[in-house]
Amino acid sequence: MNRKSYPTDLSDIEWFLLEPLVPPAKTGGRNRDVNIREVLNAIFYTLRSGCAWRLLPHDLPPWQTVYGYFRRWRIAGVWEAINDALRDTVREAEGRKAEPSAAIIDSQSVKTTAVKGERGFDGNKKVKGRKRHIMVDVLGLLLIVVVHKASIQERAGAKLLLSRAFEKGFQRLELIWADGGYQGQPMIDWVVNLTGWVFQVIKRSENTLGFKILPRRWVVERTFAWFGNYRRLSKDYEVLTETSEAMIYAAMIHVMLRRLGRNPDVWA
Questions:
Q1: Closest CA to 145 of 61, 245, 64
Q2: Which residues are CB-neighbours of 254 under 8 A, at least 6 positions away?
Q3: What DSSP element (H or E) covers 40?
Q4: b vs e for 229-264, b when ≥16 Cβ sit within 10 Å of the residue's Cβ?
Q5: Tens digit of each residue's pLDDT (9 = 90 or more) over 27-62
Q6: If pLDDT is split at 50, 70 and 90, which confidence band does 217 have?
């Protein structure tokens, strides 16, 4: 790497962890001549800085090359697969089983920009744009994300999220925590009938005065706070909701790599 480093660049330890998860070059045709580590550095630079693809610094690979890899890996499901693999590593480094038995769900409404694409108005949050529905484990690590227009209500969005999570096949998952926006016996029954999981709503007591941290609820809020460190996620700049989901997976990959890289003796 014959350039000055950026704060978002992968360290040698982080690249050591990530390299085996990167898809190999396609067989046949011209040999791959691009530096994949630099492509990933450019993607993480875009996420943290919030810049457009075309505004990538000239000492990084051409933006067309960087975006091309990001798009191909999004279509092939690579970002989600890498997120899953690193999540298992982080959980095991924390002394937990690779697959969780409990999870927390929540949504975040974000504004969209002038680009075309699916959007709606969230009357509760007064936001015109999209919702990010996420499911995280008790460490706040991302299990799955679904992005949809903000006009879809919480319970309907949760059904999209949980349906996809069920299709993914989390074998040990038994319990889902959610906040009061998802309350209602029909929702609880729907989750049990589809998945067999227990759906538990954690509500704030009517007798509670002032601020109070709700059990398990703070975990998913912290995950949204992690997203806040990535300026590309400050709004939804993407045309496709699938691209928005891939951006979120990529941000979580960067978060987990930094976490693992700080303490290599744990997982080595």
A1: 245
A2: 8, 44, 47, 48, 230
A3: helix 36-49
A4: ebebbeebbbeebebbbbbbbbbbbbbbbebbbeee
A5: 766 777 899 999 999 999 999 999 999 999 999 999
A6: confident
What lies within 8 Å, CB to CB, of 223 at 6+ separation is 134, 136, 140, 141, 142
Residue type, 262: R
Report the alpha-carbon distance of residue 190 to residue 205 in Å, rounded. Answer: 25
Residue 266 has pLDDT above 60, yes or no: no
Q: How many CA atoms lie within 13 A of 57 on its CB side?
A: 15
For 55, the 3-state DSSP assignment is helix
Q: For all residues of the chain together, what is the average pLDDT?
A: 91
What 3-state class would DSSP assign to 146? strand
Q: Encode pLDDT of 221-238 as tens digits.
A: 999 999 999 999 999 999
Residue 71's CB is within 10 A of a number of other CB atoms, namely 15
Dihedrals φ, ψ of 201, to 5°?
Answer: -95, 125
Q: What is the mean pLDDT of residues 122-134?
A: 93
- Identify the structural domains of the chain with CATH numbers, from first to last: 12-267 (3.30.420.10)
Per the confidence metrics, is the pTM higher than 0.85? yes
At residue 211, the pLDDT reads 46
Is residue 160 classed as helix, strand or coil in its secondary structure? helix
